[in-house]
Write the structure tokens for this entry.
Amino acid sequence: MKVVVTSGKRKTAVARAVAREGAGRIRVNRIPIEIFHQELPRKIMMEPLKMAQDLVKNVDIDVKVSGGGIMGQAEAVRTAIARALVEFSGDEELRKLFLEYDRTLLVNDVRRKLPKLQGGRGARKRRQTSYR
């Protein structure tokens, strides 16, 4: 039985996906992806599944995701699922299709939050100066 383990990251969210032969069940933190509670993150997570179409019917994917917020987790899951499908199938055409559509399907997004700097409340905001 073939088993593939992949991961995806976005900001501080980390998703780990395990793909194995099966009946097409995709679960995120033990919840079927079709009944995931919020619509926009669900659509983001399902993008690679819609693009792979027939391949998904032969693969079970279990994803565990932690850290970050809802959207960061959704994008991490999306990357982990896409990588699992490409590695499980070994299909170079699918890989090219994912890269043409959106590079972050297969490559982690390396952008992080800027650190807080001295002289202000955050990374960009500064205390106002008085000129009088």
Q: What stands out?
A: The chain has a mean pLDDT of 92.
